[in-house]
Amino acid sequence: MSVLATPRLGEVLADLRGYLDDEPPALSLPPTAYTSPELWELERERIFGRSWLLVAHVDQLAETGDYVAVSVAGESVVVTRAGNGALHAMSPICRHRLMPLVEPGAGRTDSFTCQYHLWKYGLDGRLRGAPYMAGNTEFEKKECRLPQFALAEWNGFVWINLDANAEPIGDHLELTAHHFANYRLSEMVQVDSWRLEWRANWKLVMENGHENYHVIGLHRETLEPYMPGGGDLHVEQYSPWVLHARIPFAVPVRPEVLALNEIQRANGMLLLAFPASAFIAVGDQVVWFSFLPTAIDRVEVVGGALTLPELATGSAAVQRTQQAVTAMINDEDRLGLEAVQRGAASRFAQRGHLSPKEQPGVLAFYRNLAHALLRAEPTGR
Ligand code: FES
Ligand SMILES: [Fe+2]
């Protein structure tokens, strides 16, 4: 699909180009970047059609038949654990006459049966049954299979890419491995998960995730005592896909559980994967997110909280408290970002000046965005 560079889109792209300069403007995106249908179409094609997205933790796909279904910028994806132990990422759109086989969510099944005419697919996407089709000599049941997407697993995190020929994400993630070496990521178990809908453009959500400056406002009662918004973010870009940041954080340390170094004891360690995925390790807790757009002004927020197995069996009351705090912080971001989305639609809105506190992360995100949208090939290829 090609997108015509309408004047409005052309202006947004010209502004984006500025972020590729050696000295980019310390300005936020033009407000139309959050409301332009033309830009959204371009993002669907050049970003979400080609990028790696974190969609689950392996604990959600532990048993044969476990599945997680998401929508990526309007494209349905289901990830399954097949009987031979392999994970598959597929398009769950029936090959007969296009009925989606499963809605976004998670569950366990031994097959997917289309509710329209009862065609039945296995966990690897191969067609297993198609009633009354024997008389159609053109139809080859053996060749009928749901389209397969690229899939990667790294330290328990499950990633998908709609582009089956995508460059592997693992090599890029591995560049940050030394930052997370002491956290025992691969041993961690998921103790909480969520699937939320926020009414905001995905870029607003991601730039919010690239700065801690907003903690002084949106999270002043909840996070500010531990993660002061005035603390300086230290950002390292490892590849066009992967950025690491450390955020000053009063980490509750339990040296008998995790042998963290001095930096890890004083910081939250953040991995941001362009375009829309992230996780942060804070001592023995890890929280992951993916902000999957479903429309120009909607994101589905999927994510989870992980901890070490020996801590996961702690008291239910403690776990409930942690879940409540996470939910509260998520909701503070949601309320703030939904309000900003409304602000972006104002005819009087304009680009804003960025604080030095937010520049390292936000400008890195804008640069990756500009790369992905302006280059014929996406970043990292
Ligand atoms: S559309 Fe799925 S069986 Fe007909
Ligand atoms: Fe926040």
Summary tags:
single chain, binds FE2/S2 (inorganic) cluster, alpha+beta, Rieske_2Fe-2S, 2 domains, seven-stranded antiparallel β-sheet, oxidoreductase, Rieske Iron-sulfur Protein, Naphthalene 1,2-dioxygenase Alpha Subunit, Chain A, domain 1, 9 helices, binds fe (ii) ion, Aromatic ring-hydroxylating dioxygenase subunit alpha, dioxygenase activity, dioxygenase, 381 residues
Describe this structure in words.
- This is Aromatic ring-hydroxylating dioxygenase subunit alpha.
- GO terms for molecular function: dioxygenase activity.
- Keywords: Dioxygenase, Oxidoreductase.
- Residues 52-160 form the Rieske domain.
- Its cofactor is Fe cation.
- The protein folds into two domains: 7-51 and 180-374, Naphthalene 1,2-dioxygenase Alpha Subunit, Chain A, domain 1; 53-154, Rieske [2Fe-2S] iron-sulphur domain (Rieske Iron-sulfur Protein).
- The protein has helices spanning 7-17, 37-48, 170-174, 177-180, 202-209, 262-266, 309-312, 316-344, 359-374, and strands at residues 52-57, 66-72, 75-81, 87-90, 105-108, 112-113, 120-121, 127-129, 148-154, 157-161, 189-198, 234-237, 242-248, 267-273, 277-282, 285-295, 298-307.
- A seven-stranded antiparallel β-sheet has the order 1-10-9-4-3-2-5, with no helix packed on it. Strands 11-17-16-15-14-13-12 form a seven-stranded antiparallel β-sheet. Strands 6-7-8 form a three-stranded antiparallel β-sheet, with no helix packed on it.
- A hairpin with a 2-residue loop joins strand 15 and strand 16 (285-295).
- The chain has 381 residues and is of the alpha+beta class.
- The structure holds FE2/S2 (inorganic) cluster (FES) and fe (ii) ion.
- Fe (ii) ion binds at residues 208, 214, 218-219, 333.
